[in-house]
């Protein structure tokens, strides 16, 4: 019988997972599809390298992220996201969504609107750096989605359609973990166990170990393995929406972050289809013996509900301030 301590911490919590690595510059698309499909069936996590974003620019994005989190609390409080938006957060996470000017008809859509940016005199060039990274990361996400399409026996441009990633909901999140030490036995984590609820997530990290994955969420006890940082690579994981879309052929994976006493920075980029996209079982993922497990749902409806389920209501914050 497993002891309580092992159950709480997760067996194998010091093990490092071996993940497939996909070279986006490789001309051998069949090998890329094979590696991705194997990864999606095994862990739902993989690396991508040679993705087109230079190491020099990645270093600049991390440097700018560090500058942001070193701002005074007073400066960060100015960027607290408002009730309509999802963009600024005074905590150690900061969202940057698709920039749509106030007054634009598109600005009323969930997850769209004007972002709340640090003042140029406070962080010169910061907005330009983040907007460029937002654009370039989206191209990486589209490249990965093309390989996913082939792995699901779809046309290579399936996700490129205007109603899908042609007008995507794409959100950049800068993350900073302080120097705390996590203790799973006491429920203390850098980030608690969760699966992402969108299509795919691209994650860039510094060189500090912290991310863990659980390949089988139903295992007793759960087995947690570290994902090693790889210089210049994105760690990619599948979200719940893709699991739903693929009729559970590809599965999203539980992951968490444990702090080891070192500061840690990471940058997550969440890629989702357009607001009006209908997420229904893909034609290649159903049969008479394997009918659709979920009803069709509009992307905006699905994401808004999942977001409300997992994010604090700012009205609670406002009440404490009055």
Automatic annotation (TrEMBL):
Keywords: Iron, Metal-binding, Oxidoreductase. Transmembrane segments: none annotated. The keyword Nucleotidyltransferase does not apply. It comes from the Eukaryota. It holds the Pfam family 2OG-FeII_Oxy. Residues 168-273 form the Fe2OG dioxygenase domain. InterPro entries: DIOX_N (IPR026992), IPNS-like_FE2OG_OXY (IPR044861), IPNS-like_sf (IPR027443), Oxoglu/Fe-dep_dioxygenase_dom (IPR005123). PANTHER family: 2-OXOGLUTARATE (2OG) AND FE(II)-DEPENDENT OXYGENASE SUPERFAMILY PROTEIN, OXIDOREDUCTASE, 2OG-FE II OXYGENASE FAMILY PROTEIN. Belongs to the iron/ascorbate-dependent oxidoreductase family. This is Fe2OG dioxygenase domain-containing protein. The lineage of its organism: Eukaryota, Viridiplantae, Streptophyta, Embryophyta, Tracheophyta.
């Amino acid at each position: 019988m497993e002891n309580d301590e092992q159950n709480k911490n997760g067996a194998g919590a010091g093990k490092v997972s071996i993940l497939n690595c996909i070279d986006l510059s490789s001309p051998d698309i069949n090998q890329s599809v094979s590696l991705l499909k194997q990864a999606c069936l095994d862990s739902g996590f993989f690396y991508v390298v040679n993705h087109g974003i230079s190491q020099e620019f990645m270093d600049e994005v991390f440097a700018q992220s560090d500058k942001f989190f070193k701002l005074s609390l007073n400066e960060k409080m100015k960027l607290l996201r408002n009730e309509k938006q999802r963009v600024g957060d005074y905590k150690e996470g900061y969202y940057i969504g698709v920039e749509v000017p106030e007054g634009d008809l598109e600005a009323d859509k969930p997850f769209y609107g004007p972002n709340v940016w640090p003042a140029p005199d406070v962080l010169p060039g910061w907005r330009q750096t983040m907007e460029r990274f937002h654009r370039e990361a989206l191209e990486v996400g589209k490249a990965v989605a093309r390989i996913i399409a082939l792995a699901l026996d779809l046309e290579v441009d399936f996700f490129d359609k205007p109603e899908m990633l042609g007008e995507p909901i794409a959100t950049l999140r800068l993350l900073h973990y302080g120097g705390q030490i996590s203790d799973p036995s006491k429920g203390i984590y850098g980030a608690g166990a969760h699966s992402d609820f969108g299509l795919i997530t691209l994650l860039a990290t510094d060189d500090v170990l912290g991310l863990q994955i659980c390949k089988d969420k139903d295992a007793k006890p759960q087995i947690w393995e570290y994902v090693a940082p790889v210089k210049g690579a994105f760690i990619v994981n599948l979200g719940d929406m893709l699991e739903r879309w693929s009729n559970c052929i590809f599965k999203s994976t539980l992951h968490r972050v444990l702090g080891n006493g070192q500061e840690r920075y990471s940058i997550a980029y969440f890629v989702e289809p357009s607001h009006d996209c209908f997420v229904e079982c893909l034609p290649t993922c159903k049969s008479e013996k394997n009918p659709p497990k979920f009803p069709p749902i509009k992307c905006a409806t699905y994401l808004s509900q999942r977001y409300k389920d997992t994010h604090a209501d700012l009205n609670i914050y406002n009440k404490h301030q009055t």
